[in-house]
Design goal:
Helix content: 10-25%
Distance between the termini: 14 Å
Strand content: 25-35%
Largest sheet: 7 strands, mixed
Structural class: alpha+beta
Mean pLDDT: 88
Length: 717
């Protein structure tokens, strides 16, 4: 494993996306001129466009950075919130006449400054005693906000569908603190933008070819060696009341408190405890002494792993009946290294024993040696007379496949109906053969035989829904986690485990599912060739579920070998959109197709590749590129990138920086001034980029600090 240069991925920064109509009340008037009296006819209709105000749909919020309760080196970074809905930050207005200014903002508080979140009603945002009306409704109310507190101008006139008793979360901020940390109205347009990118290296539920994410940035740097508290708030209609660049107040006279709506809040700690994306990944598979541990799925054991010679000697003694306790330990350790785990086994005809089981995720490649179909799960079990122990791996897989198939009514019905048609077709084929031999070319009963021939010409391949379901099953979809990892010690916290998929295990799983409706040995004989074709078609279909990059359109895995890894780490919770790329060479030059990338839980991810993966790159999501500054106050700066001059857009410009200034508190950035400083350097010789309108997209490009990529090498491949 090693840390490499930042990951390469295409990201397009977009300034904003203004909704066709912002949330407001509108009137549409239609006029018609005629040659009849009165000459002009007109009609007017009112309508309203509504959007979230007092709360946000949780599905619209993708993630936040830094993640909640994170501990790490976040000094110099700006917190941000990532949204799934592209236009959300511009659906309402914050600054009159500036469509690019978002109504959402991220405010950052230091330790001891953080306000309490209080559950209130919408009327608590309106001055006490002020009458509240609702557009298009007879509902009224009265404000309850105390004197000396300032909130949203015009809130006494609620929009369609809102009421004075709508629930909301609010925070009260001392006016002096608000003026220290809030952005100016000139800052706001630079604090939100859109990132458009490929997402084909993400988990399956996000594996669209192109996705848009909206980012709302904070404007304040965190305190070092302290807890910091971030709040996503509304600044609707607040433009004229935001502070100036130096924090001078523009609030009405006599205001001591500012009340804001808040939607999410989180805290994080800035220190050097190495809970960053890079450090979390670099410490995978390490023990408490920071030593490299296992990288494959097996139960750990103390002592030195047995050698091949020691295992062979123990097997020879076992065959002769002279096995010693030390030799038995060698054989048990060898079985554990092969991925086996012992389990209690209740036999069908009473009695209990211990049997071996191993999952389809193995430390090494196993050849396909088992022939299917079999009549039942017991027929897939293996027995070792030397030890008196069963290997129930394939029997468990077969039984599980049958249970999963029966659990899915649509699949079970479709498969059963197809089998009935298959048996009927088989009967017709046998009858035709008998008739052919009987009549020996004599033409008779032409109409009858013609109808039978038409039935014979129909496609008897399994239906598409059956093939697709089996394809997903071949990728272990629906397989309970304890069948994949039979012992928790095989996948401890903060670990990554490579594996080969045992195709015998998968074949047993698929045969169990295919066994529905199989009642006799004769029916099993009829089904056998179709099962073989179904397995081939299912595996081929499984390679088509995920969209492919252009560079992988012609990729074909001719080996039939499927590999992957399991990851268990807190990094999944902190960076849910992280991306994964696999290569079939250690140098990372030959990429292979992902078949499945899925989060099995909050901290466990399964990744399967179409081929033998030798190198895995895990990198931060491009949409979560964090913004921030470099240097130490007062010498804060940002390293510049090409925007529209010579060179690749987004590439760094060696030696060129722009100074970033703050308010007197040394934390709140003067964002609009920073934008002017960046533009000045880029336009000055020798760069001479010729930028006229410096946008939020360009500001974001100049403030990002790159995506970390960490590579893992599969030493077992």
């Amino acid at each position: 494993m090693k840390n490499t240069t930042p990951a390469e991925n295409e990201v397009i920064f977009i300034q904003y996306d203004i909704p066709p109509l912002k949330s407001a009340e509108y009137t549409i008037t239609v006029k018609q001129q005629t040659n009849q009296q009165p000459g002009e006819f007109s009609a007017s209709r009112k309508f309203a466009v509504t959007s979230e105000r007092f709360s946000l749909d949780p599905d619209d919020i993708n993630s936040n950075f830094p993640q909640n309760l994170a501990n790490g080196e976040f000094g110099g970074t700006l917190p941000h919130v990532l949204f799934n809905r592209r236009i959300l930050p511009w659906e309402r207005s914050s600054v009159n006449g500036d469509a690019a200014a978002p109504w959402l903002a991220v405010l950052l508080f230091g330790e001891g400054e953080q306000p309490a979140v209080v559950r209130e009603k919408a009327k608590a945002l309106v001055p006490a005693g002020t009458a509240i009306t609702v557009a298009g409704s007879s509902i009224t109310g009265t404000g309850t906000m105390p004197t000396g507190t300032f909130s949203y101008p015009g809130m006494q006139k609620l929009d369609y569908g809102e009421t004075p008793d709508d629930d909301c979360n609010i925070i009260d901020i001392p006016a002096a603190l608000f003026n220290q940390i809030a952005p100016t109205k000139k800052d706001l347009p630079f604090l939100a933008h859109i990132r458009k990118m490929q997402t084909l290296d993400k988990t399956d539920n996000l594996a669209k070819e192109v996705e848009n994410f909206t980012v709302v940035l904070g404007n304040r740097l965190p305190q070092n060696d302290a807890d910091n508290y971030a709040f996503l708030v509304s600044l609707e209609n607040f433009g004229d009341y935001l502070p100036d660049d130096d924090g001078k107040s523009n609030l009405p006279a006599g205001i001591t408190t500012v009340r804001l709506l808040t939607y999410i809040d989180w805290s994080y700690t800035v220190n050097s405890r190495d809970e960053t994306f890079k450090s979390l990944l670099e410490h995978l598979n390490k023990n408490e002494l920071d030593q490299q541990g296992l990288t494959v799925l097996q139960v750990p054991f103390k002592g030195t792993p047995p050698t091949t010679a020691a295992v062979k000697a123990a097997l020879d003694k076992q065959a002769l009946g002279t096995l010693s306790p030390a030799d038995a330990t060698v054989l048990v350790q060898n079985a554990i290294m092969m991925g086996y785990t012992p389990h209690g086994h209740s036999l069908r005809h009473s009695g209990h024993t211990v049997s071996w089981y191993r999952s389809p995720l193995l430390p090494y490649l196993v050849k396909e040696t088992i022939e299917f179909p079999v009549s039942c799960s017991d027929a897939a079990n293996r027995y070792n007379p030397d030890t008196g122990l069963f290997d129930i791996s394939y029997g468990a897989a077969w039984q599980l496949g049958q249970l999963l198939a029966l659990q899915n009514k649509n699949f079970a019905s479709s498969l059963y109906n197809w089998k009935k048609g298959l048996y009927a077709w088989q009967v017709i084929e046998e009858e035709n053969e008998i008739i052919k031999n009987k009549y020996q070319g004599i033409e008779a009963f032409g109409d009858v035989f013609a109808a039978r021939s038409v039935r014979m010409e129909k496609d008897i391949s399994p239906p598409e829904d059956v093939v697709k379901w089996m394809a997903r099953l071949s990728l272990l979809n629906g397989v309970p986690f304890n069948y994949l990892v039979a012992d928790e010690r095989m996948l401890p916290p903060e670990s990554l485990r490579f594996f080969y998929i045992d195709n015998n295990w998968v074949d047993a799983l698929m045969d169990g599912a295919f066994s529905i409706g199989r009642s006799t040995t004769a029916s099993m004989i009829v089904e056998t060739p179709y099962l073989a074709k179904l397995r081939v078609n299912a595996r081929k279909t499984a390679t088509q579920f995920r969209k492919r990059k252009k560079s992988l359109k012609g990729f074909v895995n001719n080996t039939g070998t499927i590999t992957g890894f399991l990851l268990r780490s807190a990094v999944l919770k902190g960076w849910p959109g992280m991306e994964i790329t696999g290569y079939d060479d250690a140098a990372g030059t030959s990429e292979i197709q992902q078949l499945r990338i899925e989060r099995l839980s909050e901290e466990v991810l399964l990744c399967i590749f179409d081929g033998v993966v030798q190198r895995v790159s895990i990198h931060e999501p491009p949409e979560a590129l964090h913004s921030g500054v470099e240097g130490v106050y007062p010498d804060l700066f940002t390293s510049l990138r090409v925007i529209q001059g010579g060179g690749d857009p987004g590439s760094g410009i060696d030696g060129y920086t722009a100074k970033i200034t703050t308010r007197s508190n040394q934390q709140t950035l003067q964002v609009s001034k920073a934008a002017d400083a960046i533009k000045t350097v880029l336009n000055a010789p020798p760069l001479s980029e010729g930028i006229t309108d410096f946008t939020a997209a360009q500001f974001a490009l100049e403030m990002i600090k790159g995506v970390v990529k960490v590579d893992f090498l599969n030493s077992k491949a």
